[in-house]
Amino acid sequence: MLRCSGDEDLATQGLRRRAFACALKSEGDVVVDLSELAFADSSLIFDLAILAQRMRSHGRRLRVRQPQPQVARLIELVGLHRQPGVELA
């Protein structure tokens, strides 16, 4: 499980990439908990899309859970929720 909290933007991209690399090494689907994420820019959503694409190539899914309304809107604008291998709940 990955948890994002506070603010995620281009300045925090390096920190989340390490966590995403660990997620790629997992054996099963990865859950991304966004319930405590107050702000995100498109760099997070694009990084999640890349993670989902890489996971999908290994037969796994990315499950995005409990985004705050403003983050959910960004997910919809970018289209992450329509990407194969992504489940939004």
Describe this structure in words.
The structure is a single chain. By secondary structure, the protein is of the alpha/beta class. It has a single domain, classed as STAS domain (Transcription Regulator spoIIAA, 2-Layer Sandwich), CATH 3.30.750.24. The protein is 42% helix and 28% strand. The chain contains three helices and four strands; from the N terminus they run βαβαβαβ. The chain has helices at residues 13-24, 42-56, 69-78; strands at 2-8, 30-40, 62-65, 86-88. β2 (30-40), α2 (42-56) and β3 form a beta-alpha-beta unit. α1 runs parallel beside α2. The longest helix is centred in the middle third of the chain and has 15 residues, at 42-56. It is globular, with a radius of gyration of 12 Å. The model has no long low-confidence stretch (mean pLDDT 95).
How far is it from the N-terminal to the C-terminal residue, by CA?
14 Å
CATH topology: Transcription Regulator spoIIAA
The total strand number stands at: 4
Instruction: Report the portion of residues in β strands.
Output: 25-35%
Mean pLDDT score:
95
Helix-strand makeup class: alpha/beta
CATH homologous group name: STAS domain
User: What count of domains describes the coordinates?
Assistant: 1
Order of strands, main sheet, comes to: 1-2-3-4
Helix content: 40-55%
